[in-house]
Amino acid sequence: MLDNLRSYYNSSYYTKMTNDVTGQGNCRMPNIKVFAGSSNPNLAKRICDRLGIEVGKSTTKKFSNQETCVEIGESVRGEDVFIIQSGCGQINDNIMELLIMINACKIASAARVTAVIPVFPYARQDKKDKSRAPISAKLVANMLSVAGADHIITMDLHASQIQGFFDIPVDNLFAEPAVVKWIMDNIPDWKNAIIVSPDAGGAKRVTSIADRLNVDFALIHKERVRANEVQSMVLVGDVTNRIAILVDDMADTCGTFCLAAQKLHEAGAKKVYAICTHGIFSGNAPTKINNSNFEAVVVTNTIPQEEKMKECSRIQLIDISMMLSEAIRRTHNGESVSYLFKNMPLI
């Protein structure tokens, strides 16, 4: 009996328990687990590679009646769980998949569940702009909270005010540091550039980039007939013999982008580039880009672009996995993520 007691008190388990109670030594932090939805598995793999961990085991399938079934293939009890799912592709199915994954982890006793949503779905439906119009972005926020999400990490929300739809912490990262780096690395004569916003709503984004590059900015005022259809455009600013760089948060049908490129070309711009965070490229957008005046259309990999890049050689990619992986690492370790708002991670 005495020998058993001596063995117990000399064991590493007893030493750890004593240190935890007395405040000596390091208390156990919950381990990190990263799971990937089916919307952007390549981005999730890149993030996990940078974190030095494996993507968590999970299985997603559909029943014969098209209901989504998600099975988490490993224990998450007491763990710090991150679920990566972009609001792209089959958006409604992907939202449902994300909600089910969050709830599955929550009721499996995960210590914290963070939804990493590089592209926030329904972000353009963020206000009641006409009678009986829904505020769908608020509805999505409510569903994420009810499902059990404790924290949201996203990138370049269409409207920053969407953060106010949540009662849980939201980190809205910006692609701006990656955009500035791409411009300086890939446009030799970038000091002769002018940053152009395709609408008044993006003026703040454009002026911030122009200030960091110490170049001028311009603005295109557009009047819409209806969604995705523009009636007229007016350029405010001088782009003569300059490299015009259109910057926006997303490119959908690319009709506005291509009209803006034509307007800039007619106004005397030497070259026209387009840079946006989320390249949706719905419909025949790749064909429009091929027939446009763009030197290149640059997007991040918040949305998978492999198929679109095969259709259009002008589409180029910025990898933002290092920003998301660093945000996950800092969140897990309880560090500030504000550094990422203006700076690129070193690795």
UniProtKB/TrEMBL annotation:
Entry's Gene Ontology BP terms: 5-phosphoribose 1-diphosphate biosynthetic process; purine nucleotide biosynthetic process; ribonucleoside monophosphate biosynthetic process
Subunit structure: Homodimer. The active form is probably a hexamer composed of 3 homodimers.
Organism: Brachionus calyciflorus
Keywords tagged on the record: ATP-binding, Kinase, Magnesium, Metal-binding, Nucleotide biosynthesis, Nucleotide-binding, Transferase
Lineage: Eukaryota, Metazoa, Spiralia, Gnathifera, Rotifera
Similarity annotation: Belongs to the ribose-phosphate pyrophosphokinase family.
Role, per record: Catalyzes the synthesis of phosphoribosylpyrophosphate (PRPP) that is essential for nucleotide synthesis.
Keyword Kinase: yes
Enzyme Commission numbers on file: 2.7.6.1
GO cellular component terms given for this protein: cytoplasm; ribose phosphate diphosphokinase complex
NCBIfam families per UniProt: PRK01259.1, ribP_PPkin
Pfam families associated with the record: Pribosyl_synth, Pribosyltran_N
Metabolic or biological pathway: Metabolic intermediate biosynthesis; 5-phospho-alpha-D-ribose 1-diphosphate biosynthesis; 5-phospho-alpha-D-ribose 1-diphosphate from D-ribose 5-phosphate (route I): step 1/1
Single Gene Ontology MF annotation: magnesium ion binding
CDD domains according to UniProt: PRTases_typeI (cd06223)
Residues of the Ribose-phosphate pyrophosphokinase N-terminal domain: 32-148
Protein name per Swiss-Prot or TrEMBL: ribose-phosphate diphosphokinase
Enzyme class (EC, first level): transferase
